[in-house]
């Protein structure tokens, strides 16, 4: 797979072993364009062979302060909203484990880029807010996922007031996974999280993510049945893999 280059260096991809680093670099605000969203979605859904982790980061003073606006007409606006939803879905259902490195400001759609990653590490000075209310807009693409993450009351407060929250509060309410102890060690802490993920197999990590999503949308009896079914299937697959490995090993070979 040839990695896309979007608008020069506005969104660049760099592979290092099993880690694919995606860097937003589009000026001070680092707004996501529709082309950038589509490129990131494509990589998440069909990554290069052998990749395990997508590391999402940004250059400049802010992580991402939202996305391009200004479309007119029902068809254009619907296409833009569909593109945003597709990226949100790819972050949570794609073929890579996702890790966000968040420094500076994250606003609106940019909060989603950070929060919807499987692991998100913020600098202590990072800030998070939803500015859509200032324009008289209910951010429904955000509200499609935010209440499940932080609860209804927090989702209403954040989007209805536009109040800014710091990194420590973002961690407490569940917007980010952890906060580095100092801005200067943010990248180091992110590397540690990535190394911890790489010590294990990608397949069960994706299965864990998928099960958590299914469980969140189901009642308890359904979750229990799903848990039994998935555990049985996973155990059978592990047994089959072990038999296959034995068959191809020198110890498992037999003279014809």
Task: Please give a structural write-up.
There is one protein chain. With 256 residues, this protein is α/β, with parallel strands linked by helices. It has two domains: 11-198, Alpha-Beta Complex (2-enoyl-CoA Hydratase, Chain A, domain 1), CATH 3.90.226; 202-252. It is 48% helix and 15% strand. The chain contains ten helices and nine strands. The chain has helices at residues 34-45, 74-93, 109-115, 140-143, 146-150, 152-161, 167-173, 186-198, 202-216, 220-248, and strands at 11-16, 19-24, 53-58, 97-102, 105-107, 119-122, 127-129, 165-166, 178-179. A six-stranded mixed sheet has the order 1-2-3-4-6-9, with helices on both faces. Strand 3 (53-58), helix 2 (74-93) and strand 4 form a beta-alpha-beta unit. Helix 1 runs parallel beside helix 2. The protein starts with 10 loop residues before the first strand and ends in an 8-residue tail after the last helix. The relative contact order is 0.10. The model is unreliable at 252-256 (pLDDT under 50).
């Amino acid at each position: 797979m040839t990695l896309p280059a979007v608008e020069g260096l506005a969104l660049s991809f760099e592979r290092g072993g099993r880690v694919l680093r995606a860097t937003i670099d589009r000026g001070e605000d680092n707004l996501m364009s529709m082309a950038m969203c589509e490129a990131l979605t494509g990589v998440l859904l069909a990554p290069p062979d052998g990749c395990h982790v997508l590391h999402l980061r940004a250059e400049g003073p802010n992580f991402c302060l939202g996305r391009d606006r200004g479309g007119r007409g029902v068809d254009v606006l619907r296409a833009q909203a569909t593109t945003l939803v597709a990226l949100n879905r790819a972050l949570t259902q794609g073929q890579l484990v996702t890790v966000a490195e968040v420094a500076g400001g994250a606003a609106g759609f940019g909060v989603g880029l950070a929060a919807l990653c499987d692991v998100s590490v913020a600098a202590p000075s990072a800030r998070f807010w939803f500015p859509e209310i200032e324009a008289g807009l209910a951010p429904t693409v955000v509200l499609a996922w935010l209440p499940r993450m932080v609860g209804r009351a927090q989702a209403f407060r954040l989007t209805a007031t536009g109040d800014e929250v710091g990194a420590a509060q973002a961690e407490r309410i569940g917007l980010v996974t952890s906060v580095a102890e100092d801005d200067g060690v943010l990248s180091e802490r992110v590397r540690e999280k990535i190394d911890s993920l790489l010590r294990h197999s990608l397949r069960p990590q994706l299965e864990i993510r998928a099960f958590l999503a299914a469980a969140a949308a189901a009642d308890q009896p359904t979750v229990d049945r799903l848990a039994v079914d998935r555990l049985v299937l996973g155990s059978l697959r592990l047994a089959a893999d072990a038999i296959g490995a034995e068959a191809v090993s020198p110890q498992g070979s037999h003279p014809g």
